[in-house]
Design goal:
Length: 505
């Protein structure tokens, strides 16, 4: 009779560990020695590491002593500022939910009451973004974007390099005269249409990112080229005028337009190399647009009315935005379209990216909070103090510091408030240091457009984020290099060469 092992010790041990809730222990697998609850905790910590980092920074700032010159509420505001930056860079929390946290934080820390905090979420810029998204949905409903896209592709050709250069150039040049809001509004439906007819985001993700960022960065580099390009420019003109420095429309363009013209090919080249498109020839897209338009037949009367409303809104933005605001003008257009039965509420409800609206509302609220608590002014003062310690007190070095500070701040709050907060400080510093206030002022306004890094930095970023083609990290990935190039170009070319040639300092 052969030997038979009646009791198998290894199997018994495995069974015992299973009954007790522990993983079977394998001598060759040291990673399995932790019980399931500990594994789950470990996995949670790994998954939520960025959220935990954001919370840690906030708690640390909250517990630190309040620095001299900063109020307690200002310190709490800086804690939220740090939390939001980490979340927007890493998407540790869905971006619209991060925006909701901004209001809750203000109430619980006593920065604002539960009645005041919701009011900070409302601004003309928020209404504008909502109106733009609705207007884009209306244009796409009647395939107007396809007609404009076909016209643009006929001008640029079907090669992707020429198309991207054409998008960046159109957005940049038009943004100086019809405001960046209108330029984004015109180009966004075209970009979405090209992506859709090229196979959709899942088939051409790089092409989708490439086109969306070309639109956003195109209007960014062009909105500073003329005083009419944005509120920041008009605000700086007013600040300079209060010092007795009057600068004309043409002089402003002469000082800043070279920056825009140089950046157009740089932005195009960088984005094309960073997001290598899956399709290099859009001939198939052109043919698809033609076939779709032939199937639809000629423009209907409803499509013509929709186009007329859109053009009227653009004209209103150009000539009446200073009086009525871009948001109100956009909403009048949407209301008119609804009255004429061109769109209905159920359609707008489905096609509007409400998360984007909430996201930018939160950004506006945070910007107002940083200003109201004095945190923004304190941050600017600390940067300038560090510059003074480093003996950076005048000339090109002062220009470099003020431009860098402005560019960093503008990525966490809108460009208009950035100039409103930093402009008076920097102009005063320029006066005291015997540096041209004109140069420092124009450079501050220019650097406030370098909103390359965060979704919340400018309405253009928030709008192109809406279709869902981009992640928050894409802005940091693509914008980091352009951010540095723009600063170097401002300081090394404009400040050190071009403005001296013009004799402005």
């Amino acid at each position: 009779m052969g030997k038979q092992k009646v009791f198998k010790l290894n199997e018994y041990r495995k069974k015992e560990r299973t009954v007790s809730g522990l993983e079977p222990l394998d001598n060759g697998d040291r990673g399995a020695r932790f019980p399931p609850p500990l594994n789950k905790v470990k996995a949670f910590l790994k998954e939520q590491k960025w959220l935990l980092l954001a919370l840690l920074l906030t708690v640390l700032i909250y517990l630190l002593p309040t620095p001299r010159g900063l109020t307690v509420q200002g310190k709490y505001a800086l804690g939220l500022w740090a939390f939001v930056i980490v979340c927007f860079l890493t998407e540790a929390v869905p971006l619209p939910m991060t925006a909701m946290l901004i209001g809750c934080y203000q109430v619980f820390t006593g920065i604002a009451s539960f009645r005041e905090a919701p009011r900070t979420f409302m601004d003309d810029a928020v209404i504008f973004i909502m109106g733009v998204l609705m207007m884009g949905a209306m244009l796409m409903k009647y395939n107007i974007h396809n007609r404009v896209a076909l016209f643009m592709l006929k001008l640029c050709g079907a090669r992707i390099e020429r198309v991207i250069l054409g998008i960046v150039a159109f957005c940049a040049i038009s943004a100086g005269f019809i405001t960046e809001h209108a330029a984004v509004m015109i180009m966004l439906p075209i970009g979405v249409g090209i992506v859709s007819l090229s196979g959709g985001y899942k088939k051409v993700p790089n092409l989708a990112k490439l086109i969306m960022l070309a639109i956003a960065y195109g209007v960014m580099i062009g909105s500073v080229s003329a005083p009419s390009g944005g509120a920041r420019n008009a605000l700086m003109l007013g600040l300079l005028s209060s010092l007795g420095i009057n600068i004309g429309y043409g002089q402003w363009m002469l000082m800043v337009m070279p920056f825009t013209l140089i950046m157009i090919p740089i932005v195009s080249y960088w984005l094309l190399n960073l997001f290598s498109p899956e399709i290099t020839d859009l001939s198939g897209t052109v043919q698809a647009i033609r076939e779709e338009m032939e199937a639809d037949g000629p423009m209907t009367n409803q499509a013509r009315m929709a186009l007329a409303i859109f053009l009227a809104v653009v004209v209103g933005w150009i000539f009446a935005s200073q009086r009525f605001g871009v948001g109100n003008i956009a909403m009048v257009g949407i209301l008119l379209a609804a009255v004429l039965r061109l769109i209905d509420w159920s359609y707008l409800q489905q096609k509007t990216q409400w998360g984007v609206v909430l996201l930018y509302a939160g950004a506006i609220s945070m910007g107002k909070m940083l200003i109201a608590t004095g945190a923004a002014s304190w941050l600017a003062g600390q940067f300038l103090h560090l510059a003074a310690v480093a003996e950076v007190t005048e000339g090109v070095s002062l220009l470099a510091v003020t431009a860098t500070v402005t560019a960093l701040v503008t990525n966490t709050m809108a460009d208009g408030p950035t100039v409103a907060v930093l402009g008076p400080i920097f102009l005063k510093v320029a006066e005291l240091s015997r540096t041209s206030p004109l140069v420092i002022g124009v450079a501050t306004s220019l650097a406030s457009a370098f909103s390359y890094l965060l979704v919340i930095a400018t309405p253009a970023n928030a709008i192109v984020y809406g279709p869902g083609f981009l992640r928050a990290q894409d802005f940091l990935k693509a914008g980091g290099v352009l951010f540095l190039i723009s600063l170097v170009l401002t300081v090394a070319f404009l400040g050190s060469f071009w403005w001296r040639v013009l004799g402005v300092w």
